Amino acid sequence: MNGKIKVLIVDDSAFIRVLLTEILQSCEQIEVVATAENPIDAREKIKKHAPDVITLDVEMPEMDGITFLKNIMRLRPMPVIMVSTLTQAGADITIDALETGAFDFIAKPTTDVKNKLTELADELIEKIIAASGCNTLALEKGKSSGLKPIKAKKMSGRYELITIGASTGGTEAIREVITCLPDNLPPIVMAQHIPDTFSTSYAKRLNRESVMKVRELRSSTLLSPGYAYLAPGSHHLRVEKKSGELWGVLDDGDKVNRHKPSVEVLFNSIVDLKIARSLGILLTGMGKDGAIGLKNLRSIGAMTIAQDEDSSVVWGMPGAAVAIDAAAKVLPLNKIAEYIVNNQ
């Protein structure tokens, strides 16, 4: 054992297998122990090499990636990073994979693959490293099903706005919160680190599974009670006040904390408006995006919550918030929706 992160690459394209191997082997912390061209081949190599992390192509012959992922999560749970095409069909399948227990995904370009995938090298390496140390128990628990809305209570008017930020593991974390909420809450605004095509698919799925109305915000929109608004993967989401009413607006500015949308941008837009009657929630994710914004929210009198370590797939963002005393409460994921309803 050399202490390196052992990775198995599963992809039916020999070109992609070679390219991913070159990218990952450029990092001294990572060793590609084997590659496989299909899940049948991969099963034997998992037994032989016991990889720490798998990269898995979504679309393959003999057995598709989702079916293989389900088998992995049932028989030998481990972090899996899906390699998905930047298409609507690829987005839908990837959301399925995240619900099934995939750690994260990398979006594979459909043109100029070598150059564009090489541009994603740092992101892929970062995700492999994070996956190797992730909370696999939280990944398994994240395969939530049969979630039911909490019974609505009379609104007290304590909050006029609720805001949520998340990254790695966040699609399922947000899903667990939103699908448990009734439809009589103040407007909710959300920033999740996710590419553009994928955010559209994700918002539609959340809307189908929730009693709240969930919309991907694509233009300036009046924020209405009973609605949850998701930032698109292409823009930051800010909250502004127009004629005394709250609006969600898009911002095509530079990345912040390497992200667009950035949780920091969303949180700080609420700070700028000094909306003390707001609730800020920071969920699982790599890095520190949103931690300072949550601290700023708390400083104006807003209520702030960070997801706890035991229920987070990656306790990066919420952990960073806790470290700087940004969170008034630290709660397990399955208690956050209950807190919102009981204290709204």
Commentary on this structure:
With 344 residues, this protein is of the alpha/beta class. The protein has 13 helices and 15 strands. The protein has 2 domains: 5-133, Response regulator (Rossmann fold); 161-342, Rossmann fold. α3 (65-75) packs parallel to α4 (88-100), α8 runs parallel beside α13 (333-342) and α10 (263-272) packs parallel to α11 (291-299). The longest helix has 14 residues, at 196-209. It is elongated.
Features:
344 residues; alpha/beta; 7-stranded parallel sheet; 5-stranded parallel sheet
Short account of what is shown:
Helices cover 38% and strands 22% of the residues. The chain has 344 residues and is of the alpha/beta class.
Q: CATH homologous superfamily of the largest domain, by name?
A: Methylesterase CheB, C-terminal domain
Q: What is the name of the CATH class of the largest domain?
A: Alpha Beta
As for the number of domains, it is 2
The geometry reads as: elongated
Q: Helicity level, as a percent range?
A: 25-40%
Task: Count every beta strand, where a strand is a DSSP E run of 2 or more residues.
Answer: 15
Give the name of the CATH architecture of the largest domain: 3-Layer(aba) Sandwich
Structural class: alpha/beta
Number of helices: 13
* SSE pattern, N- to C-terminal: EHEHEHEHEHHHEHEHEEEEEHEHEHEH
The largest sheet, given as strand count, sense and whether it forms a barrel, is: 7 strands, parallel
Query: Average pLDDT, to the nearest integer?
Result: 92
Q: What is the percentage of strand-forming residues?
A: 15-25%
Q: What name does CATH use for the topology of the largest domain? A: Rossmann fold
**Unreliable spans:** none
Distance between the termini: 52 Å
Q: Order of strands across the biggest sheet?
A: 8-10-7-6-13-14-15
Q: Kindly provide the radius of gyration, computed on alpha-carbon positions and rounded to a whole number of angstroms.
A: 20 Å
